[in-house]
Amino acid sequence: MLLEKIKTPGLSHLSYIVGSGGKAAVIDPRRDCECYAERARAEGLEITHIFETHRNEDLVSGAPILKELTGARVLHGHRADGTVAYAETAREGDEFEIGQLMIRVLETPGHTDDHLAFVLHDTAYPDGPVGVFTGDALFVGDVGRTDFYPDRKREVAGLLFDSLQKILALGDQVILYPAHGAGSVCGSGMADREFSTLGHERVNNPRLQFSSREAFIDFKVAENHYQPPYFRLMERLNLEGGDAAPRVMRPKRLSLSELGNREVDHLVDVREPLAFASGHLAESMNLPVDMISAFAGWFIREGERIALVASDEGQLEAAMAHLVRIALDRVAGGYVGVVPAAAQGKAMRTIPMIGTEEVERRLANEDENWTLLDVRDADERSQEAIDRSQHIYVGELNERFRDLDPSKHYTLMCASGMRATVAAGWLASRGFEKLDVYLGSMGAWKAAHY
Fold first, then answer.
1. Which of 47, 81, 367, 429 is the most buried (most CB within 10 A)?
2. Torsions phi, psi of 121, nearest 5?
3. pLDDT, tens digit, 9 for 90 and up, residues 101-154
4. What share of the chain is helix, strand, coil (3-state, %, to 5)?
């Protein structure tokens, strides 16, 4: 018998392959899906079923591609805001045999209208289910967001509450298999661990401790979430069915002259923020490899061409994989080596770093031509903020940079300086020249003042 979790870094996406008796099923596969077929074949299993918990907003589903590879049936919920072209409809109570295993469908709307959970039974032990694949309804330490239907806020929050009760009723012994772990944009309170039971969550998950359905709804309605533009692309592709990922998940290597001759919409430097700030190609923006999944979809649009700049080939390959999984993969190529570019006389830019004392001095001077720009999310800022700082979430600078005056001086800050450097790189690529970053940002401010 096989039950294996496959984690997608960056997106913190969790998919699963289960198998028994020569058959296997995959739950919520990612776009580069050959790994599931290879794993099944290694165990002597045939993938016969592919289950989707919902139409994903944050990644391209691999279900239609894996269907082509294996001939498996794809099962998806109804009410998906359109027809899922590559799937059959599964409904409450439907059951599917996978050798000794049996998977039963629960309809669990709230996060999305089409959301399903898949309950795992071992028919050799008939006393009750052993696991449940909860998609984006229930996570370890958190529950799903409910902001995708703004005209129905209270209704969908109530639906999620009811769905959670249905899941918890399966029994405390049931093992939880969610579709995301900590770091996903689908929730902000997930625990770092990726293992739990319904019993543990019932007692310890803060989102399951509300005294009433109305209290839960009030909390969910008051939550703040951001929806990057690429979510709309994911929603469309996950109805139509996305194309297969490129067979080679590594961009073409470019020389410095080739890089300069490429017609691209974005030159993206994927090195670490401090390396970028120390010296980067003048036209580039900064999306560190580990932050591509969270922020590329804010600044890069469907069909736009990209060239990558990295420290080494490994960074290029990792960056390409992250971009492929969110269908922003028109990558013209990649260049390695910023220092050699500088040695050849290529124009470089830097972004200065300043400390707490300098920030305090500037705040005291009250210079109208200088702004401390806080790019953290709204929840972080509501907990603590520096007086007289301005707030624009880093992702929303994709459009709101137009609200800023390029002739003025901006110091970017976040929690530590990482997102601030991304924001500064974006502004620099839009023509802003008077920029620096508060190194340590809110962490350094708190260390100095609390």
1. 47
2. -115, 145
3. 999 999 999 999 999 999 999 999 988 999 999 999 999 999 999 999 999 999
4. 35, 25, 40
